Amino acid sequence: MDKKDRKAVEALLGYTHHRLGFRPSAHNRAKLETKLGSLGLGARWPDLETFVRDLDAGDAEARDLLVKTITVNHTFFFREPDQIEALAASVKSRGIAEPKIWSAASSTGEEAYSLAIHLLEKGITSFRLVASDVNPRVLSQVDRGIYQENRLEKVPRHLRLKYFTRTEEGGWQVVPDLRQRVAVKRVNLLDPVRFREPFDYIFCRNVFIYFDEASRLQVLGTLAANLKVGGTLYLGVTEALLEVPPQFVMESHATYRRVADTGRR
User: Fold this and answer.
1) Strands 248-252, 146-147: parallel, antiparallel or unpaired by DSSP?
2) Are residues 65 and 88 in the same domain?
3) Do 85 and 178 lie in a common domain?
């Protein structure tokens, strides 16, 4: 990498931190530098310097390419199943007639569809489920609902046949009725997002690895603002908070209950 490209990569690292809140660990920084240094710029940008200039000017296409490059979208159906089981059990025990659920940073949608399938299998047929991500490319896959075989390894055969159909290319597509149950929305968790109605449950798993401590607190504030008092926040099992913000109390490992802003209860 020459001196000019090195300078451009440093500028991109600064943008990802200050504008997107992504601050990789020392271990992951080298990997990120390699990714940024080999961006697939295509015909539009002759070099990284031009790309950085357009990015700083607010070019949406440049920003989307950057987000696509720095985010990891590897996931699969029924990941961390204990939390999925806990969701249905909580809905029933709390007697919520129509639970509102937000799958934040949902990537390509496997989490959201897993939640919907499990709720339906538990006899909970009335619910509202939103899947969001900052990356428009992965959201388009949620809309299509087409997945390769390796993403469905943990889906039992009877559920595959019930909720998916085979595609001509050998993949699996979510059936239309299930796709219609998941609303898709583009959300940057670092923005001051406020939904029209707060949620009963929020899943925000395996995303905090991208954020420094200040950005984590900012995201937790956004999640708290969109979660009902008494509602539940599920984080990834490797993302338990060392310091719990005042809007939450810990219920179990990586599971937190929203409390009133006036104090804990």
Assistant:
1) unpaired
2) no
3) yes
Distance CA 44, CA 62 (A): 10
pLDDT of amino acid 264: 42
- pLDDT-derived band at 215 (thresholds 50, 70, 90) equals confident
Q: Give the torsion through C-alpha atoms of 63, 66, 71, 73, to 10 deg.
A: 80
Tokens of 258: 């929203």
Residue 238 CB neighbour total at 10 angstroms: 11
> Angle at CA 188, nearest 5°, toward 65 and 250?
135
53 and 114 both lie in a single domain: no
Q: Which residues of 128-149 are buried (b: 16+ CB within 10 A; e: fewer)?
A: ebbbbbbbeebbebbeebbbee
The amino acid at residue 146 is: I
From the centroid of its chain, how far is CA 80? 14
Please tell me the distance from the alpha carbon of residue 221 to that of residue 219, in angstroms, as a whole number.
5
User: pLDDT of 98-118, one tens digit each?
Assistant: 999 999 988 889 999 999 999
- The token duo for 131 is 């899947």
